[in-house]
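Task: complex structure prediction.
Instruction: return structure tokens for all chains below.
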Amino acid sequence: MKTYFHVDMDAFFVSVEEIFDPSLKGKPVVVGGAPDQRGVVSAASYAARKFGVHSAMPLRTARRLCPQAIFLEGHPSRYRDYSRRVFDILTSFAPAVEMASIDEAYLDLTGTTRLHGHPLAAAHRLHDLVRRGTGLNCSIGISRSRMVAKVASDQAKPNGILWIAPGLEARFLAPLDVRKLPGVGKVTEQRLFAAGIRTVRQLAAADEAYLAQSFGKWGMALAGKARGEDAGGWYDAEVGEGGGPKSISHEHTFSQDTADSERLEAMLARLSEMVARRLRDHALFARTVQLKLRYADFSTYTRAVTLDHATQLDTEIRDAIRNLFRRNWRRGAAVRLLGVHASSFSDSAGQASLLDGDGALRWSKALTAVDRIRDKFGADSISLASGLSARFRERVHENPAGLPGKDPQDGRSS
DNA sequence: TCTGGGGTCCTAGGACCC
DNA sequence: TCTGGGGTCCTAGGACCC
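Output:
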């Protein structure tokens, strides 16, 4: 018999902000940026939620619903720091821990009854450990099924613990709206509604052949789960089985749409550098590089290319992206968003690089030096020339460090 | 209401191979 | 000369999650 915990931090970003500024406590707080910016709500305090504000909502909408809210840009490094603290506490408590995102984790407590006692007692002690170690509240769902544990933690919010006794999974889920099932979003919910299915109970009773045909893999798996059966799928993987990242990407939405090709290409170069840097940090090489292009009307296109060798070099990613951009951008059309995405990872370049071995080695060394400088002096302290917007170039050309050398492919100094 | 940024997984069609 | 079946790789798009 399996025992899983799903630990979910309550209003995580907002709660971390409250630690650094206790005067925020109890007030409507919105993390995501200034309310006149392009952007959406990353997190809202419970006081803000009372006004209808929720995550993923445009900031402008949040302001309309709750003009008195305090809007914060947020501090991603603080959130990562606190996420790590939570993770350390969880790993001190359970043999297998998997962070599913920055603010939630699955724990496998199977076979720990002698050590921890009844799951509910264990959950209360874990809750106290997290509270004392970080100052943050969490909610915990407990079940023999990972998916049910996740739904349970959601039902337990805020600051609660909910144990679903083995055998009672289907009874617990039955009265819930189908939207409560992870994997059922807006679209699937609407399609289920159209078929007369609103609750998990109705989903459990629905014709399996129909679900398989209309909703594919997910539909069938969910129908099984709705009946409390153990169907296949992601939720049956062992806790902690998840490997490294499968893709790395960066994207940017301009504060105002632009058709300035120099600005656009400068942004693509910068995004390429950010992606390459993270590849090097993870010691990964990517073979597939993808451009994302969103126009002013929100129409969005992706264009990918698979290279004949895997790379982690700024120049190779940037050049591939630039080619994709030049071939696909409707010249003159205003762009809202640009993105650079890398995937198909391996742990080495594989087949011979386009650069000769010596050139690739020199570049690798130069880039590592750049990475170190950025660590010390900040991300903007040094950049490939084409990664800078024109107005910053002057300054960098005076860069006394003078690193690194020459780009062997196009001779541009960096 | 005017829509971020970082991810994962699934589907579907075409190329290509045996 | 009217057209199989399976497998893999690649690309594009989309649903969904936090």
